[in-house]
Amino acid sequence: MFVSPNLDANTLAWGIPKDRVVTVLRKGTEVFTSKDAGFYNDAVDIRAIARVGFGFLRPVSAIRLYDAA
């Protein structure tokens, strides 16, 4: 969730339907394992680097949530 101070007093939140959002994974994801012996801890260290973003297929389908009372 992204919070913004730019909402007017009547707007509670904005939402986007989940069928209008895609998760984008960039090529070049890397996974590394350590070459160090981990016998003392019985462990293997793993590091992964991935770049992930979100795409909104139809920004006009955003939904405004407000108090109608």
Quick recap:
The chain is an all-beta fold and about 70 residues long.
SSE layout:
Blueprint: E1 11-15, E2 21-25, E3 30-33, E4 46-49, E5 52-56, E6 63-66
Antiparallel strand pairs: 1-6, 2-5, 3-4
Note down, in words, how this protein is organized.
The protein is mainly beta. The protein has a domain at 19-66. It contains no helices and six strands. It has strands at residues 11-15, 21-25, 30-33, 46-49, 52-56, 63-66. The strands form three sheets. A two-stranded antiparallel sheet has the order 1-6. A two-stranded antiparallel sheet has the order 2-5. The chain is elongated, with a radius of gyration of 21 Å.
**Shape designation:** elongated
Structural class, please?
Answer: mainly beta
> Would you report the number of β strands?
6
Q: Give the distance, in angstroms, between the N- and C-terminal Cα atoms.
A: 25 Å
The average pLDDT score comes to 83
List key phrases describing it.
39% strand, 0% helix, two-stranded antiparallel sheet, mainly beta, 69 residues, two-stranded antiparallel ribbon
